[in-house]
Amino acid sequence: QVQVEESGGGLVQPGGSLTLSCTASGYTAEYIAIGWFRQAPGKERELVSAISGSGRTTYYADSVKDRFTIARDNAKGTSSLQMDSLESEDTAVYYCAAQVTNIVAHAPRYQHEYMYWGQGTQVTVSS
Q1: 79: number of CA atoms within 13 Å, CB side?
Q2: pLDDT digits (tens, 9 = 90+) for 25-40
Q3: Beta strand residue intervals within the chain, DSSP E
Q4: Residues 117, 61, 114, CA angle at the centre, nearest 5°?
Q5: How large is the C-alpha radius of gyration of the chain?
């Protein structure tokens, strides 16, 4: 069983920055792939970014490429999502998801590939 908890949401002005953190515990960090998803009001949940257990493979949605940066620290069992140049369209509830896999270079891109989910943290971009 993997426990997932995210933090770091809040209110930020357009053009500002915010960093989300995710802690995934209960298994060896290197074998836990992490995905960050978001769901805006009235929209389906979508993948924002993903990182493999080893950290060597990352994926970004086109809408956040060059603005968001995903990273992980396996020694601490944490992952982060650095969000820069935030736009009103980035307003959503952000979820951290985790999946145990022995393919340490695999960064899952689909919701059904993740078994463990955090409660979500609200990010609001508004002036």
Answers
A1: 29
A2: 988 989 999 999 999 9
A3: 3-7, 10-12, 18-25, 32-39, 46-51, 58-60, 68-73, 78-83, 92-100, 116-117, 121-125
A4: 25
A5: 13
